[in-house]
Amino acid sequence: MSEQQALRRTPFYDLHVALGAKMVPFAGFEMPLQYPGGITKEHETVRTRVGVFDLSHMGEFEFTGPDRNAFVNRLTCNDVGRLEDGQAQYSALLTEQGTFVDDCVVYRFDDKVMLVVNAANIEKDWKHVLSKKGSINCRVKNISDDVALLGVQGPDSEKLLQPLTKLDLSKIGYYRFETGQLAGVQCFVSRTGYTGEDGFELYFRDRDAEVMWRALVGAGRADPIGLGARDSLRLEMGYALYGSDIDETTNPYEAGLGWIVKLTKGAPFVGKTALDLVKQRGVTRRLVGFVCPEKGAIPRPGFDVYLKGHRVDAVRSGGFSPSLQQAIGTTYLPTHSIEPGTAIEIDCRGKKVGAQVTETPFYKGGSVKRS
Asked: Which CATH superfamily is domain 284-371 in?
């Protein structure tokens, strides 16, 4: 079987094709890279109005039973015990060495917990979860194939969605969610996203995919957004991407994600012993952002990074920022060289070009409501 034949499709595939999307392989799925208007236009649409993303390739694991909260608290490094019903939390699954198996979002319901994981890691993450279960009184289920997920992102997100639901969206706080109907579809509506703009993520049964899509995108209500703009929006905010900025060779403290590690939460979570030592000793490198002012020089992932003539790492995430109109990226640097303004060089296809460390997020004008 060829790679193309082996690719999976989300329930929105035919709708993407009908809209003229350029479909590409991504995380084992055939996904829309961009639509006819182009990546820059889609990026600007999310920054200024509202756009709709197909995120149905993401994975979802459901935990039920008396010990569900305790089990997820042992699996993840953040503190599930701090969550109220109807609240979500950014967290991570870790190895025993304290490095990333994956980053994830934890949703706490009154009768279950749900983990949302990256599409490329569904199988690996599921095996990790099962390997840690033991005899704990908790039932786990991989519901990834049954769930459709749309991201609605941009300053006009609430304006787009409110006429379609009786839920009062203005009362859903950041990283909070409510269950109800939207466009006649039973779903839960979460005020989350990875763009830096205000927005929501809608989870519902895959059989309702077309109804929901047409309610949001039909009649030109909102523009569809592909993977290209999804990545440039994410990068402008300095949000970590698994497989680029974080992986099984990096730990949360190096990645600037120490805030999701709760060493004193009372649960001996996977990776805690290793991270206790990291916390005591400190880290020798940190993930930093950089800008590359030279016109036409775009730092792509994998390009070598040099500090004072010595190769120190590679570009982790990189590309052109439509909002800032310049090239930006991330890399790991020794902790003694992470101050903003530090000069580095990027080997862009055989030519070394200058770059400078800068604070993140790169883009500071997002509309996300954090209250």
From this structure: Aminomethyltransferase beta-barrel domains (2.40.30.110)
